[in-house]
Specification:
The complex is a heterodimer of chains A (240) and B (401). Chain A is mainly alpha-helical and 240 residues long. Chain A has helices spanning 4-26, 40-46, 55-61, 63-71, 79-83, 87-91, 104-111, 158-166, 199-206, 228-231. With 401 residues, chain B is mainly α. The longest helix of chain B is centred in the first third of the chain and has 35 residues, at 90-124. Classes of the chains: A mainly alpha (240), B mainly alpha (401).
Chain lengths: 240, 401
């Protein structure tokens, strides 16, 4: 036999032996018992200190807030979602205080306008919505309701109102574009408000030549011959 | 950002390092396949590049997993995939493909090919060097006729084994992308084949560049028949690669799945520079035309007769353009596949960072590292065959052209 074969054989045997030896030494004993992982990992994770106490724990001492929350629109949002992990507080209520998230930034993580949020989820445009007052001035964080009963047009046309409040037209009142007789509120289907009929209406603010203010277009050529709202939704005008 | 994207698509998870990884493995597979051409198919002209190609493959193979290690961030845990193999994960099994390719194919082939020289260096050197080379021979210092013959045939068999292994090595990389069925830019059965062919293209081009640079740096004349042959192979590889990519393209156009709109936006916008300009125009069409006109691909004469000096420069230029093109291709696949939203309604942007583990600086470092390793390898195992025991009169002529 040529010399190379036994020499290489030795090298490869050593390599395989190292691999097998390493397997013996390094694979944790419980590996593979329940799947492709170390079964004892479950125990070591269970041994981590508990950080969250759970909503039920809070209710024992904070019955008032718990009741309020259950009645309001934040009933689906857990106490510790806002107050942070509070298990240490449950152990020693007087020693450890949970955080109180009363900044605008905090509420905005869930409520700022974002197209990917579910339709109808209450959203605001933070820069426009009563900036810079803290949210809790007007909304009770445990049972948030709009502080005023929706009246006027938004009582019935809530979706349009909500959408408009997020749009570039947020500042415009409905009356700018619609003339609504008072009786419309009593008999909405038989007494109809007006709807804009001419391009000129939009032109009062958007036609070229008006100083300052909204973005301008040339009324004579822009989008002719269509009505403006064939392309721009008037309650949420976009340009893309 | 443009249009609508889901929140988790804003940031790209696979960045430059993952672009680098298929690029490096591609060079390995390509260089090896070039080497095997000489060995198995007995293409005599490219013989001067045989060992250089092997060492190139080795140097790049050593670096190839580093981008992955850096990207995943826990290099000290990587040995675990060998200890507890997970046969249901293609990525985990790749560790074994890699180990097989490194240990069984490349190292063994280099060893058999160099054994005669190792013994020679061992016998002629003194001091620690002598023992170093002795260790490399593994003590197999027998230089009998029978022994040398065994080296030769063992090397040949390993090469035969190595070709499918090289295909596996790089086909795997394409497979990983091609099998992501949720991503219309990647999901394609042609992916492994396209990756493989582009690997061959880039490997040949790299060896061509390295061969010219090293020969000139050593002040030796370039072996023109060898270079012509390399350029010819490069041309053929480009032809096949280009046709496959065009096939893929036409197939997508004809299928016109719902993703076609966002993909065409992607190509016309975000990827215009890297796909149309760099990959297609500069990286493929220019070399295709230059090599097509000046190589011996259309026997017996090239379409345009060019003086040697100019031809060398043209080949070098084409090979460098090809490298840029293939790197762009990896970029377009890896980054392009993450630029559009799964909603098919929007595109995000990729900003390359400079410092930081996934940044441009570490990419450049990892690109230079294999060249440095190659330089070391060449110092330890000179591939030029200029030792006294290699000087058979016929070969001297072959080497010096």
């Amino acid at each position: 036999m040529v010399q190379q074969v036994p020499r290489l054989a030795i090298v490869f045997t050593i390599a395989v032996a190292i691999l097998l030896g390493a397997r013996q030494l390094l694979i944790p004993p419980t590996f593979g018992e329940d799947g492709h992982y170390r079964a004892a990992a479950v125990d070591s994770i269970a041994a981590h200190p508990i950080k969250y106490a759970g909503r039920q724990a809070c209710e024992l001492c904070h019955a008032e807030q718990a009741e309020v929350r259950l009645a309001g629109n934040h009933r689906g949002v857990g106490c510790e979602t806002c107050h942070g992990p509070a298990a240490p507080h449950v152990q020693g209520p007087l020693d450890v205080k949970p955080v109180i998230p009363d900044t605008r930034e905090f509420c905005v993580t869930c409520h700022s306008y974002n197209a990917s949020r579910p339709t109808g989820f209450p959203q605001i445009e933070p820069a426009r919505h009563n900036f810079p007052r803290p949210c809790k001035d007007c909304h009770d964080p445990h049972a948030p309701v709009p502080p005023v009963t929706p009246g006027e047009c938004s009582a019935c046309h809530a979706q349009i109102a909500r959408q408009k409040s997020l749009s570039h037209h947020a500042e415009l009142s409905c009356a700018v574009c619609h003339e609504a007789p008072d009786t419309h509120k009593d008999a909405p289907r038989s007494v109809r408000p007006t709807k804009p009929q001419t391009r000129a209406l939009c032109g009062t603010c958007h036609a070229a030549g008006i100083e300052e203010g909204p973005p301008q277009i040339d009324l004579e050529s822009h989008g002719v011959p269509y009505m403006c709202w064939d392309c721009h939704y008037p309650h949420f005008p976009e340009t893309r | 950002m443009q249009g609508f994207i889901y929140p988790n698509e804003f940031e790209l998870h696979w960045s430059l390092l993952i672009v680098l990884y298929p690029y490096l493995t591609g060079l390995v597979a390509g260089a090896f396949i070039l080497a095997s051409l000489e060995r198995v198919f007995n293409v005599k002209e490219v013989q001067p590049t045989y060992r250089l190609a092997l060492l190139t493959a080795l140097a790049f193979l050593i670096v190839a997993p580093l981008p992955l290690q850096a990207h995943l961030g826990h290099p000290e845990r990587s040995y675990e995939i060998f200890l507890t193999p997970n046969s249901r994960s293609a990525m985990a099994m790749f560790g074994f493909v890699y180990a097989w390719y490194l240990a069984v194919v490349l190292l063994l082939e280099v060893w058999f090919d160099y054994r005669r020289d190792l013994v020679g260096w061992y016998q002629s050197a003194k001091g620690p060097k002598r023992w170093f080379y002795y260790a490399l021979t593994l003590g197999a210092t027998d230089l009998s006729e029978k022994s040398l013959k065994f080296d030769d045939s063992a090397g040949r068999w390993i090469t035969v084994l190595g070709i499918p292994s090289a295909f596996l090595l790089h086909g795997y990389v394409g497979f990983i992308f091609g099998s992501v069925k949720a991503n219309p830019w990647w999901s394609s059965v042609l992916m492994p084949v396209v990756f493989l062919l582009s690997a061959i293209v880039s490997g040949i081009a790299l060896v061509l560049v390295l061969y010219m640079v090293t020969t000139m740096a050593r002040g030796k004349p370039v072996n023109m028949p060898c270079l012509d042959r390399l350029a010819q192979f490069l041309f053929y590889a480009i032809v096949i690669d280009l046709s496959l990519e065009i096939l893929d393209f036409i197939h997508r156009l004809y299928e016109s799945e719902e993703s076609i709109e966002i993909l065409s936006q992607l190509i016309e916008g975000r990827l215009f520079l890297s796909l149309i300009v760099l990959q297609l125009l500069l990286g493929t069409l220019v070399p295709f035309v230059v090599l097509g006109l000046t190589t011996h691909s259309f026997r017996p004469k090239p379409l345009i007769q060019v003086p040697e000096e100019l031809r060398r420069m043209l080949f070098l230029l084409s090979a460098i353009l090809v490298q840029i093109g293939i790197f762009s291709m990896r970029f377009n696949v890896v980054i392009g596949g993450q630029l559009f939203s799964k909603s098919l309604r929007g595109l995000t942007v990729y900003k390359v960072e400079f410092l930081g583990i996934e940044g441009l600086a570490s990419t450049i470092f990892l690109l230079l590292l294999p060249l440095f390793i190659l330089w070391l390898l060449v110092k330890i195992l000179p591939p030029w065959g200029e030792e006294p025991w290699n000087q058979k009169p016929s070969e001297v002529a072959a080497i010096q052209g």
